[in-house]
Structures are given as C-alpha cells and as structure tokens.
Write a structure and sequence with these properties.
The relative contact order is 0.08. This protein has about 450 residues and is of the alpha/beta class. It folds into three domains: about 200 residues, Up-down Bundle (Four Helix Bundle (Hemerythrin (Met), subunit A)), CATH 1.20.120; about 90 residues, Translation factors (Elongation Factor Tu (Ef-tu), domain 3); about 130 residues, Nucleotide-binding domain of ferredoxin-NADP reductase (FNR) module (Rossmann fold, 3-Layer(aba) Sandwich). The protein starts with a helix and ends in a 5-residue tail after the last strand. Helices cover about 55% and strands about 15% of the residues. Bound molecules: flavin-adenine dinucleotide. Flavin-adenine dinucleotide (FAD) binds next to strand 4, strand 5 and helix 13. Flavin-adenine dinucleotide binds next to strand 4, strand 5 and helix 13.
Length: about 450
C-alpha cells in the first residue's frame, strides 16, 4: 500500500507533464512549438507548471504522511525539503518574464508596460503576491538568513508560503490556458494532484493529531526533575499502546494550556514505551523549554503529533551497538539502549557531558547496566572532581574504550559539531557510513 501511495505523486506529475506536452504540441493552432513566440510561451508555462509541482512535492515531503515518513524519517525528509525548495524560486522567477516576453512579441508593447498590463489580469496580481511570499519563505530558509532568525520568526515566514500557494491557485485554475483550454485529462490530473497533496497535508499535520487527541485524551501526568536543567514529562492517555511508539523516536508536542498553545516542539522518547506512558525529557534551552520548566503543570492536555523518526532498533542489523550521546542527546539513546539490551544486543554507551551535575539519567543508566547488556562510560570535559574519563570523545578514545567498535552499529545524538566530528572519526576508523545512524535535534 505504501508503495502505491509513494508512486502517486511522481506518476501523476509525469502524467501531467506528458499530457501538457502532447496536448499543446498537438493543439489545432500548433501555436506552442511552431515558432519562437510559441516556444517562449511554452517554456514560460512549463516553468509555472514545474513551480506548482515543486510546491506540491514540497508540501508532501513535510506532510508527515504515514506512507512516507516511516520510510525515510521526518528529519531526512525535512532536510531534503530544505534543499529541494531551491528549485521553486528559480522556476517562479522564470515564469513571469517568459510569459510577458511572449505577449511583448505579440503586441509590440514595451516590456514594463506589458508586465503592468498582465498584472491587471484576473488573479495575476494575487498570484504575483503569492509568488513573492513563497520566494521570501525560501530565501529566509537559506542558511545565512535562517541562522539570524528565531525559529518562530522563520516559521511564521514559512507559513506565509501556504498563503502564497492559496493566492496562486486561482491563477492556475482561472487564467492558466493549460487548465481551461479544453484539455480535460490534464485538468483532471492537475486537480487530482492538488487533492492528493492537500488531503495528505491536512490529515498528517492537523486532523490526525487532533483526532488522536480527541480519542485518547493525552495529558501530562507528572513532571520529574532530572537535573537542574532537565525535567521529564510523563504523558498518558487512553490506549497508549496503539500509538506503537518505538524507543528512539520523537513526537511533536503541543501543550494545550495558556502560553503554550501556539507552539509545537519536537522531543525524543526518553524511556522504553510501556503501553501506558510516553516520557519526554526536556532541557531548558530557549523560550519554550524554559516556560515548560517554569509553568507547565500536571493535568495539562497535550496534542501529540507522532511518533516520528527512524532512529530505532530496526537500524541495528548486528548483535552489538555503540551508542554515543552528548548532553541532552542522551534522550533517544536512553530509550534505544533499553530496547536494544532487552532484545539481547550488547550495547556500549559513551556519554559526554561537561560535569557530573549535567549527567541526565545517571541512576537509571546504572540500573540498566546492572541488568546486563549495557556498559556505560561517562566522559566529562570540565569537572575537576571527576576521576573517570576526561576530555572529549574522539577516535583514540573509541578505540580504547570500545575495541570491538568495528563490529557495532553506531548511534549518535548530540550537538551538531560533536556529531560531525564523531562521524568523521568513525569513518576514519573504517566504520561504514551505512552503519552510522544519527538523530539531529533540528528539523
Ligand atoms: C527530532 C528532535 C528531537 C529532539 N529531542 C529533544 C529532547 O529529547 N529533549 C530536548 O530537550 N530537546 C530536544 N530537541 C530539541 C528541542 O526541540 C528544542 O530544544 C526546542 O524546540 C527549543 O525550543 P525553545 O523555544 O526553547 O528554544 P529556541 O531557542 O527558540 O530554539 C532553539 C533551537 O531549537 C529548534 N527549534 C525551536 N523551536 C522548534 C520547533 N517548534 N520545532 C523544531 N525545532 C525547533 C531550532 O533549531 C532553534 O534554533 C529535539 C529536536 C528534534 C528536532
């Protein structure tokens, strides 16, 4: 079933392009491909169609659809969405000048005069505003701008792209000659693609989490401090087992209380799901997480979007695993380690922190060690009282502490520079890239 859904958009997009080509090259007027004027219009329209297909594809990538997300993982899909989005402004910037140029060649008007005249046509001005909003959203997602903006500001600009799409649909349907020139198969395919995209988006992003919330009544049952900066939120509800949450996955949480409702944030499951509770452990790192620490109360309802992610036991193909965590990156590895050792795999955890007071789940990790199947090494880089491993985790330390590292699947989660350095260290030690799995705390 998943494969069928997976092929709907590529097949539909290819069909739309073929239908568009054949319909237009066989048009009675022969206009599109017969001369230079027709050719310019053809490319102008093609750019518009590619931009619209690009936007639909982008929306599907972040739709959190159940037929797509488990195959690749939400984080990889989101990263692909960030890169693939660049094609849209290119196509959007090409579309208007080519169409205007076509009309200039037909009418003999000046380019600017013709541009302004075109803007006066039905729905074109709205589409131009929509194009502007979409391009702004893409530009603000480029690294140079993204790093200067707060997540919320960037997110609001991104929501503007949805308004941009809504503004442009009228133009596609009303004015796009391709859609109303009596070419029914193309039109039907186009409508079907939009319906498929929007249904998946609405279901995955809004209706499914809301329906689950309504039927399961998720609620914060208790809040337990772990360190001075981290506390665990225990969430329960009806029929929690049916969520089929796996250790290592994450969910996007929206606490339904004043001051929290407008924001949804991702957090990893930090304890093996037991069919009754999901536990998330949250470090104070900004506005939202600080308010969670300061004002979230037991009894608060929660909308859970997820679980998501493929950083799970299924990635561990051998009998042994090497888990490497930095700071709050322990959360998915804490639950994954518990799952792997329960499945009889041999796990070693290297856990890096600044000082002993920063170690999250210290007692729980000791208890898991006592059960067997998990060995934990703490590595601290700025605790004068610490007599154990000091410094950072690098290739030499991995070789010394985990001599059989080459036989292990590696799972990493920590600050981005640490993950980059560790991936390089492991590949430098000859570990295949396919056996290194990482969870990045950024979508
Ligand atoms: C897959 C995943 C799993 C995570 N698991 C944990 C965990 O178990 N424990 C934990 O403490 N933290 C976890 N995080 C990080 C956590 O989501 C951020 O620390 C939190 O959202 C920061 O919000 P803030 O407003 O407090 O901080 P800010 O200072 O506003 O944000 C800090 C950074 O967090 C990211 N961020 C902020 N808001 C969002 C959002 N709504 N959606 C996505 N990213 C956002 C951005 O990259 C931002 O630059 C996880 C992140 C991801 C992507």
């Amino acid at each position: 079933m998943k494969k069928i859904f997976l092929s709907v958009f590529p097949v539909g997009a290819a069909a739309a392009l073929c239908l568009w080509y054949f319909d237009n090259s066989a048009a009675p007027s022969g206009s599109f491909f017969s001369d230079k004027i027709g050719l310019v219009m053809a490319f102008g329209r093609l750019a518009g169609i590619v931009a619209a297909l690009g936007v639909m594809g982008q929306l599907l990538l972040v739709s959190r659809a159940a037929w797509l997300e488990p195959l690749f993982g939400l984080d990889r899909l989101t990263r692909f969405h960030h890169k693939a989005g660049l094609i849209i402004p290119l196509a959007l910037l090409i579309h208007p000048p080519l169409v205007v140029w076509h009309h200039v060649m037909q009418t003999g008007n000046g380019f600017i005069a013709q541009y302004l005249a075109v803007l006066g046509w039905a729905d074109v001005l709205a589409a131009a505003c929509g194009e502007f909003l979409i391009i702004v959203a893409v530009i603000l997602s480029l690294p140079f701008a993204r790093h200067r903006l707060s997540y919320e500001a960037w997110h609001r600009a991104h929501l503007g792209a949805y308004i941009g799409l809504a503004l442009s649909i009228g133009h596609q349907l009303e004015l796009g000659m391709d859609l109303n020139a009596g070419l029914p198969y193309f039109v039907w395919t186009w409508y079907a693609l939009y319906i498929f995209t929007l249904v998946n988006l609405a279901w995955g992003r809004a209706l499914k989490p809301l329906w689950r919330y309504h039927s399961r009544k998720f609620v914060v049952e208790k809040i337990v401090p772990e360190t001075t900066e981290v506390e665990s939120i225990w969430i329960t509800g009806r029929d929690m087992a049916s969520l089929q949450a796996e250790a290592g996955q994450f969910a996007i949480l929206r606490f339904w209380a004043p001051g929290f409702k407008l924001q949804a944030h991702p957090f990893s499951i930090s304890r093996l799901p037991d069919g009754k509770y999901l536990r998330f452990s949250i470090k104070k790192s900004g506005d939202f997480t600080t308010s969670v620490h300061n004002s979230l109360k037991p009894g608060t309802p929660v909308i859970i979007d997820g679980p998501h992610g493929v950083f799970t036991e299924k990635k561990c193909l051998g009998d042994k695993a090497l888990l490497i965590a930095g700071g709050i990156g322990i959360t998915p590895l804490r639950s994954l380690g518990e799952r792997l050792r329960a499945s009889g795999k041999d796990c070693v955890l290297l856990y890096a922190n600044r000082a002993q007071k920063d170690i999250v789940f210290r007692r729980e990790l000791e208890e898991l060690e006592d059960l067997g199947g998990l060995t934990v090494h703490h590595i601290l880089n700025s605790d004068p009282e610490w007599t154990g491993e000091k410094g950072s985790i690098d290739a030499d330390r991995i070789k010394r502490l985990v001599p059989d590292f080459a036989e292990r699947d590696a799972f990493l989660c920590g600050p981005p520079p640490m993950m980059t350095a560790l991936t390089a260290a492991l590949t430098g030690l000859g570990v295949s890239r396919t056996r290194i799995h990482s969870e990045v705390f950024s979508l």
